[in-house]
Amino acid sequence: MKESGRKQGAPSPCAACKLLRRRCAQDCVFAPYFPADDPQKFANVHKVFGASNVNKMLQELPVDQRGDAVSSMVYEANARVRDPVYGCVGAISSLQQQIDVLQTQLALAQAEVVHLRVRQTASMPNHGVGPGSPSSSGSPSSRLMGSQFRPTFDMDTACETHQMY
Amino acid sequence: MKESGRKQGAPSPCAACKLLRRRCAQDCVFAPYFPADDPQKFANVHKVFGASNVNKMLQELPVDQRGDAVSSMVYEANARVRDPVYGCVGAISSLQQQIDVLQTQLALAQAEVVHLRVRQTASMPNHGVGPGSPSSSGSPSSRLMGSQFRPTFDMDTACETHQMY
Questions:
Q1: Is B53's Cβ below 8 Å from some Cβ in A?
Q2: How far is B46 from chain A (nearest CA, A)?
Q3: Which of A115, A75, A78 is nearest to B141 (CA)?
Q4: What is the pLDDT of residues B58-104, one digit of tens each?
Q5: Of A42, A46, B104, B139, which residue is least crowded by CB atoms under 10 Å?
Q6: With a CB-CB cutoff of 8 Å, which residues 116-155 of chain B face chain A?
Q7: Which residues form the LOB domain (chains A, B) (predicted)?
Q8: Partner residue opposite B91 with nearest CB, options A61, A120, A153
């Protein structure tokens, strides 16, 4: 079982304070998220963001959001250590490519559904209903067909256009 | 037209050195990527990663990879300023959700293609060829159908499992 933080009465510093060689205060902002038994978790975050920045970022957040913020920073830091050039932006680019491939596959499959329906209607003995209505009460995929969305990210321009200021 | 860096003979500090209030040396590691006329670009990177960490990360990379590294850091920093809790991990999560939706839509559309083909074959006068062979020389989508891939990211566990050490 993991120990989170320090034992009462026997102050053992959290991983952050241990690395920074400082006293781990009772209200240490790092202690709840960086237990002493997982030193690498803080080491990467410190290497990429710096303890001072992480401290500031956590202090600016309500306590109930700090756990998620630490998780996302740990994820980013590990990605940057693994890939110093692209970090987790490499993951975004890869996911974007997967979306592009899936959208192409989906468009082709949907076009084929339409093609097969039209052909099927034309081959029916009473096909006077016209190509606009075949199976329109339809299958689950026909109900989803209208909901194709555009991805919200374009990595070709993301680094230039996704700036806040 | 954008100025990149400093004019020869008229040393104007880059955005990084200006913010850090230091002399911008001829071989400043920041100058090629943080021109004086875009101070916010460096401000966010400094706020999130810290100038010292960025300096170190750039120094550890070959010169021809530093531009990409700066772009990805700027992207991450802007995302973190915009969303202090999730940063660009929020983007990864959103893209992953889009992939899940697209995979569901694709599976449904492909199932419908198969269903329509079988029905079409059954309604043909000479349908002795069996359901295994209809249109198998096929359309573009049928060639792509076998290439469905699993996403490489699972954000439910990413923050716990994508650690390097």
A1: yes
A2: 9
A3: A115
A4: 999 999 999 999 999 999 999 999 999 999 999 999 999 999 999 99
A5: B104
A6: 116-117, 119-120, 123, 139-142, 144-145, 147-149, 151-153
A7: 12-113
A8: A153
